[in-house]
Amino acid sequence: MVEVKTELRIQLKDLYIRTKRTEQILWGAAGSIIRPAHRSAYEGRLMSMPKVNIVAAASAVTLIVSTTAGTIWYAAGQASIIANLEETVSQLSAQSEIQQKVNMQRDILANSERLDEVDEDINDLWEELEMAWDDLEGMTSYMTEILRLQSRIAILEKTVEFTRRDGM
Fold first, then answer.
1. pLDDT digits (tens, 9 = 90+) for 57-95
2. How close are the terminal C-alpha atoms of the chain, in Å?
3. Domain chopping of the chain, boundaries
4. Interhelix angle 2-27/36-48, nearest 10 degrees
5. What backbone torsions phi and psi does residue 159 show, to the nearest 5 degrees?
6. In sequence order, which residues have a C-beta less than 8 Å from that of residue 26 and are 6 or more positions away?
7. What does DSSP assign to residue 167?
8. pLDDT tens digit string along 101-146?
9. Is the whole model's pTM more than 0.90, yes or no?
């Protein structure tokens, strides 16, 4: 224990000597280029300079580095999310195109079947119309025959009436 204390005293004394030498160099010891008249102005400038706390400076540097790293990490995460979303959109677009094609084919088949049904309905109506025209034509000829018979009957009636008057 005594040896440790002695060792520490030696290290402290050495540190004190080095500090004094540094102080003499900085503050202009004997033989220095700083003149005694200017020493107070020089000391004033040194004293007016802001004191930088090493812990505060290290904290600021750590804060800047961690903020930059966080920003890079966040941007990388966003880029990954955007890439995943683009992939999902492309998959959904492809799926949508396939669904549109399938729906279009289904609609075309349904419309062609509906057109076939409409064509059959039109053909049925046309046949019924032809039958109605045939019936109308037959009715017209029938009516014409009835009118001829009525005119012949009217002529016979007049003939009979004239013959009765004449006494025959």
1. 778 888 888 888 888 888 888 888 888 888 888 898 889
2. 185
3. 1-49, 53-140
4. 110
5. -65, -45
6. 46
7. T
8. 999 999 999 999 999 999 999 999 999 988 888 888 878 888 888 8
9. no
